[in-house]
Amino acid sequence: MLRRLIAIVAALVLFAEACAIVLVNWVLGRVAANQHMSLAGVDPKAISSGAWVAGGLFGLFLTVCGILLLIIGIRDRAPGRVARITLIACAVVHAVLGAFLVGLVGWSAFACLMVVLALLVFVLLAYAKERPAPGPEPEDAPGGAPATA
C-alpha cells in the first residue's frame, strides 16, 4: 500500500514539476525575445524559440515519467524494461540538476530535487523484480560443476 501511495505522489510531483519547467522556460523565452538578448551573435528569436522548445521537451519528458509512475501506482506492478530505463534516466537527470543548481539557486532547490530523486529511487527499489530462487542442485554434480558435460 505504501509503495502505491509513493508512486502516485511521485507522479503528481512530476506533473507539477513539468508545469513549472514549462512556465519558467516560457518566461525566459519571452524575456529573451522582449529584451532582444543575444549570445555570441545568435539571433534573439532563435534563443527564445530554443528556450520554448527545450521547456516543452523537458516538460514532455517529465509528464511521460509522471504517467509511467501513475500507471505503476494504479496497477501496483513492477515497471517494464523501457519504463524502468526511463525512470532511471529521470532520476539521473534530477541528481545532476540538483548538483548543478545548488551553486546557482541554493540549497532549497537542491533539497526539492533530492526529494523528487528520493521518490523516484524508492519507487524503483520498491517495485524491483525479485529474482527467482535458484533450483536445487543435481546430486551427481560435484560442487558447482555442471551435471552434464
What does this structure look like?
This protein has 149 residues and is mostly helical. Helices cover 73% and strands 0% of the residues. It is built from 4 helices and no strands. It has helices at 2-34, 44-75, 81-104, 107-126. Helix 1 runs antiparallel to helix 4 (107-126), helix 2 (44-75) packs across helix 3 and helix 3 (81-104) runs antiparallel to helix 4. The mean pLDDT is 88.
Give the arrangement of secondary structure elements.
Layout (H helix, E strand, L loop, with lengths): L1 H33 L9 H32 L5 H24 L2 H20 L23
Helix pairs in contact: 1-2, 1-4, 2-3, 3-4
Q: Tell me, briefly, the overall form.
A: elongated
In round numbers, the mean pLDDT is: 88
Radius of gyration: 22 Å
**Strand content bin:** under 5%
Low-confidence stretches: none
